[in-house]
Q: What sequence folds into this?
């Protein structure tokens, strides 16, 4: 059942069965907020495309992290800052191909180059050393130190 009516200054047909509003002049369905449905669908598709792109990027970063965490970190940070590989390369004084191979895990940079790249990404390189003890190595026992009382 259709009924003619006026809604927000334009002629429309209201389909009571489907509860949708149609702009008869442009012949476009209108979404509940007043945006033509085709335009709203394009907006959702763009958001979905951006979401899919980000989801795929972070999935590949997670996979890369298992192989080369330095490369994964650089790629993730560059993505967060919305920088291209070319921009990072120019600012760090390296080539685009070097950054590309680095992010794919194909290069291991020297410490000075890594510091320059991390500087572009607003980060600082921290280096630490930790001794790893095998499970089968017995733990060293530490003798208690007696407390000396001085008079």
A:
């Amino acid at each position: 059942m259709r009924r003619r009516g006026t809604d927000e200054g334009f002629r429309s047909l209201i389909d009571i069965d489907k509860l949708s509003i149609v702009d008869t002049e442009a012949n476009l369905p209108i979404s509940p907020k007043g945006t033509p449905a085709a335009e709203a669908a394009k907006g959702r598709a763009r958001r979905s495309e951006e979401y899919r792109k980000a989801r795929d990027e972070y999935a590949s970063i997670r996979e890369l992290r298992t192989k080369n965490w330095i490369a994964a970190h650089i790629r993730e940070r560059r993505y967060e800052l919305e920088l291209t590989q070319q921009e990072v390369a120019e600012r760090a004084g390296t080539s685009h191909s070097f950054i590309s191979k680095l992010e794919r895990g194909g290069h291991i940079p020297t410490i000075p180059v890594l510091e320059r790249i991390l500087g572009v990404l607003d980060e600082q390189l921290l280096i630490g050393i930790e001794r790893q003890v095998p499970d089968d190595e017995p733990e060293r026992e530490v003798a208690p130190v007696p407390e000396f009382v001085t008079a």
